[in-house]
Design a protein that fits this description.
The complex is a heterodimer of chains A (727) and B (132). Chain A is α+β, with helices and mostly antiparallel strands and 727 residues long. In chain A, the strands form 6 sheets. Chain A has an 8-stranded antiparallel β-barrel with strand order 7-8-9-10-11-12-13-14. In chain A, strands 21, 22, 25, 26, 27 and 28 form a 6-stranded mixed sheet that branches. In chain A, strands 2-3-5-4 form a 4-stranded mixed sheet, covered by helices on one side. In chain A, a hairpin with a 2-residue loop joins strand 12 and strand 13 (459-466). The longest helix of chain A has 34 residues, at 117-150. Chain A starts with a helix and ends with a strand. By secondary structure, chain B is α+β, with helices and mostly antiparallel strands. Chain B has a domain at 2-81: Orthogonal Bundle (Arc Repressor Mutant, subunit A). Helices cover 45% and strands 20% of the residues of chain B. Chain B is built from 5 helices and 6 strands. In chain B, helix 1 (20-32) crosses helix 2 (37-48). Classes of the chains: A alpha+beta (727), B alpha+beta (132). Chains A and B meet through strand 3, helix 10, helix 11, helix 12 and strand 10 of A and helix 1, helix 2, helix 3, helix 4 and helix 5 of B.
Chain lengths: 727, 132
């Protein structure tokens, strides 16, 4: 048998059991007519139990001991064997189907010769049942979404109370964090009555019970008694809540409270009371109930409690029979109940996290800094700030964020560059992106705009702004979540543990060269030096790299970072680096490390210079040991420059384009003509312009220093080539 | 729905319908203007319990109504508070039932709206009630 059909059979079985319970509760409810309504309300939990729970305990007190009533077991038999007719099953799908079945018997038999006719009926019934559940769910989801949408702009009145447009009566919405919504401009008395009422609902968890009851109703949608139970349960819920409010506010408040009920009742226009929230049901009977309500006498309460408990036990328990054990075993899985639909408002795209620099999209021509992947700080974006975390130097810059997503078009984007000399082809082309959004702006402590964040399709761009011009644009990639412990702390290892020691030379020309030393000989030599560092003091915590000049940065296998400064013993450096113990180490360490580094650094496989159609293979040296032009002038390959040529000068290492600091010499006199420091406007572009503008017949030598990151190493190269202007 | 009356400099009177919640929002704008939209989001979160998107929606709507201006993420007012008078609301006058769901469902689940006769009857019931 199909799972669905098994479930349906179990549901039918339980629904019949529950029918008697519901009828019993309705009867007892009549007896308790003058008792506080909270007892009637509590009784419904028994019906709910019967509808939800497929097993129960047995008791002689059970109503199912009454001989004429079929036990759950016999009903299940009945469902499987259509020959047993049960008159009170008229509403059940399977009893209404047999006549139709006889009519279409041949067809069904032809279709499925061996199929049990009952099986076919069951299948049809199961499909119908599923359809009904779907309709009920759709209805509740739609009404939930509708109401949710209409309260979105509710204005907080106090705590969890919101005033709201477009609603005429108050209600509670939400399950985990329920909120009370009331219309605007209620008078104060009405409001306090209504709030007292709604708060009591929440205190009693009615806001959970009602959707739960509706879920049951959804499953038993075909059952009129369950509908009746649901309606009466809601009524009892409201009335018992009303009574509680009256006993809290005092009987003197009856009239006021009734007027409040009337006031919200007369103004209803929308059917507010969907299944998942509270509306005011049946004002007249509620007002009557409120007006007639008296603090119950003790004996009356006792009697009511007794009746309730007896009814509860009688209805919950199964009949005590010899076959009691056979009743309870579950041959079918319990119904999988769908939880009440909770539809979240679509959250804003969650951008927060830790980002790494991935690619330089743009750098201002005036910038003296060029970003290299792998040697950049982290960018932590939280929901209200941007933090730039430089682990190398233990610095954190913080900028306050304002998140104001706004779409931008190409014109908006171009406007950013209006204060700059824009070199053709340098400005990023955003027409390739379908959706461009300025997502957030970040300001410094003086409220100056420093950064803005763009979402370009699925790319994240961080635009650095500096006195109303774009300084740089970095493409960032998310590398993880923000962890608080990643910042600072001199004692913990910070980097990923590697199987080698990274030795990095900064030669003071903005070019760093690093090499990963994996051979044990070199490593032990370095460990010897480090051992002395450890004796002195902790590693340096902060250093201004631009003042430090030449230095060596060393990343040990445990991730610790050390600095050794070239001219640390000079008084000037001593003064500046006074607080940094490592700088106090003798010069010999610097030289020992430098020698070690020098013996391990490699040259690239290939370098090329292209200028239009001209191609040459330039001379390549390590940046830190490049010779002077006069020593190599005879080996320098030349490109020829045509004044009309509009093409770009491009330098490649291993097929990758590189940029860097350029020195230009007069090829004849070897006099240095220009020094172009690294900037966002690629220096070779300036060099190309200079060459194009030169007098015909002039020759130049160009020495270009570039940083080139490959794997976890950075290489610094000096690339030397010549250029002749021909016309 | 609330009604705004805007008195222009020329002395003309314009009537504008806005929601009560929008009016609350405008009260905050008037108080803090000129205000960065980010700051406004913060203010609305504190004072109205609004989400970011709700505030931005309100900014957009009020811009469309011509009450405020939003330039470079700074919100400024077009119509100052002095030019505006709040009219009595007609929110509680409507008694018609215009539910879009089937009648039986609404009747089943929420009771139905009271007719004015029924309301009067209940009112009499309450008035006549005396605590014994």
């Amino acid at each position: 048998m199909d799972v669905l059909e098994t479930v349906l059979l179990k549901i039918l079985d339980m629904s019949i059991t529950a029918s008697y319970v519901i009828m019993a509760v309705l009867l007892v409810r009549l007896l308790l007519k003058h008792a506080p309504k909270v007892f009637s309300y509590a009784l419904w939990s028994v019906a709910a139990f019967r509808l939800v729970c497929p097993v129960s305990f047995s008791s002689v007190m059970s109503i199912f001991n009454i001989g004429t009533l079929p036990t759950p077991q016999s009903i299940e038999d009945a469902a499987i064997q259509p020959t047993v007719s049960t008159g009170n099953m008229a509403t059940m799908p399977q009893t209404s189907v047999p006549p139709a079945l006889t009519n279409g018997h041949e067809t069904i038999a032809a279709e499925a010769q061996s199929a049990d006719p009952m099986q076919t009926v069951l299948t049809v019934a199961a499909v119908l049942w599923c359809l009904g559940v779907a309709v009920m769910l759709t209805y509740s989801i739609i009404s939930y979404l509708k109401i949710r949408n209409s309260v979105k702009q509710g204005v907080r009145f106090e705590d969890n109370v919101y005033e709201c447009d477009g609603i005429q009566s108050p209600f509670v919405l939400g399950i985990i964090k329920p909120k009370i919504y009331i219309p605007f401009r209620m008078n104060e008395k009405e409001r306090s009555c209504i709030l007292c009422h709604e708060r009591h609902h929440i205190r009693r968890f009615d806001h959970v019970i009602k959707p739960f009851a509706f879920v049951i109703l959804t499953v038993y949608w075909f059952h009129p008694l369950v509908w009746l139970a649901y309606i009466f349960m809601c009524k009892d819920m409201e009335m018992s809540c009303d009574e509680k409010v009256i006993s809290l506010l005092g009987t003197a408040a009856k009239q006021e409270y009734s007027l409040s009920l009337l006031s919200v009742g007369t103004n209803r226009r929308l059917p507010v009371a969907g299944p998942l929230f509270f509306g005011e049901s049946d004002v007249k009977s509620r007002v009557k109930n409120v007006l007639c309500f008296k603090k119950p006498k003790v004996w009356a309460v006792m009697l009511a409690v007794t009746v309730c408990v007896a009814a509860a036990v009688a209805c919950t328990a199964n009949a005590q029979t010899d076959k009691a054990e056979e009743v309870s075993p579950m041959e079918t899985p319990a119904i999988t109940r769908t939880s009440p639909p909770v539809v979240g408002e679509p959250d804003a795209y969650d951008i927060s996290g830790r980002y790494e620099f991935e690619e330089n999209v743009y750098t201002n021509p005036l910038s003296s800094f060029f970003a290299v992947k792998g040697h950049m700080p982290y960018f932590d974006i939280t929901d209200n700030a941007l933090r730039i975390v430089d682990e190398e130097f233990d610095t954190v810059e913080k900028y306050a964020g304002t998140f104001a997503p706004a779409d931008i078009n190409e014109d908006d984007f171009e406007a950013l560059f209006q204060n700059d000399i824009v070199v053709e082809g340098m400005m990023p082309d955003i027409s390739v992106y379908k959706k461009c959004t300025q997502y957030a702006v970040f300001t410094d402590e003086y409220n100056r705009l420093e950064y803005s964040l763009y979402l370009m399709d699925d790319e994240v761009w961080l635009v650095s702004l500096n006195t109303d011009r774009v300084w740089s644009i970095y493409r960032l990639v998310k590398s993880g979540d923000i962890s608080e412990s990643t910042v600072g702390g001199a004692d913990g290892p910070e980097n990923v543990v590697t199987d080698g020691i990274t030795l990095e030379i900064c030669n003071g020309k903005d070019v760093r060269e690093s090499v990963l030393l994996t051979d044990s000989e070199a490593q032990s030599a370095i460990q010897d030096i480090i051992a002395q560092y450890e004796n002195v003091k902790e590693r340096t915590t902060s250093v201004n790299i631009f003042q430090a000049g030449e230095y060596i940065r060393l990343i040990n296998t445990d991730g610790r970072i050390y600095y050794v400064f070239h001219n640390a013993e000079e008084p000037q450096m001593q003064k500046m680096l006074d607080s940094h113990s490592l700088a106090a180490l003798p010069q010999e360490h610097y030289e020992a490390l430098f020698t070690l580094w020098e013996s391990h650094i490699n040259l690239p496989a290939m370098a090329n210079v292209n200028f239009g159609d001209e191609k040459v293979s330039p001379l390549v040296y390590r940046a830190s040991s490049a010779p002077a032009p006069q020593d190599i002038k005879d080996q320098i390959p030349y490109i020829t420059v045509d004044g009309q040529d509009g093409s770009l000068l491009q330098v490649f290492i291993d097929g990758n384009i590189v940029h860097g600091r350029c020195e230009v010499f007069n090829a004849d006199t070897l006099e240095q003509l220009e020094l172009f420091e690294p900037s966002g406007l690629y220096q070779e572009t300036i060099v190309a312009a200079m060459l194009k503008a030169a007098e015909p017949g002039q020759s130049f030598i160009i020495m270009m220093s570039v940083g080139y990151a490959k794997g976890n190493q950075i290489y610094g190269y000096t690339i030397v080539f010549g250029a002749k202007k021909i016309n | 729905m609330s009604r705004f009356t805007i008195v222009n400099q020329g002395g003309n009177v314009d009537t504008l319908n806005i929601w009560d919640s929008d009016y609350r929002f405008m009260t905050i704008v008037w108080e803090h203007v000129p205000v960065g939209s980010g700051e406004l989001v913060k203010l609305c979160r504190e004072k109205l319990g609004w989400k970011k998107s709700t505030t931005y929606n309100a900014i957009r709507r009020m811009c469309e109504k011509g009450l405020i201006r939003n330039e470079d993420a700074v919100v400024s007012v077009v119509v100052p508070k002095e030019q505006v008078q709040m009219m009595e609301s007609d929110a509680f006058l409507s008694r018609t039932f215009d539910g879009s769901l089937p009648q039986f469902l609404t009747a089943f689940l929420s009771g139905r709206a009271l007719s004015s006769e029924e309301a009067d009857e209940i009112k009499r019931l309450i008035d006549a009630h005396k605590e014994k």
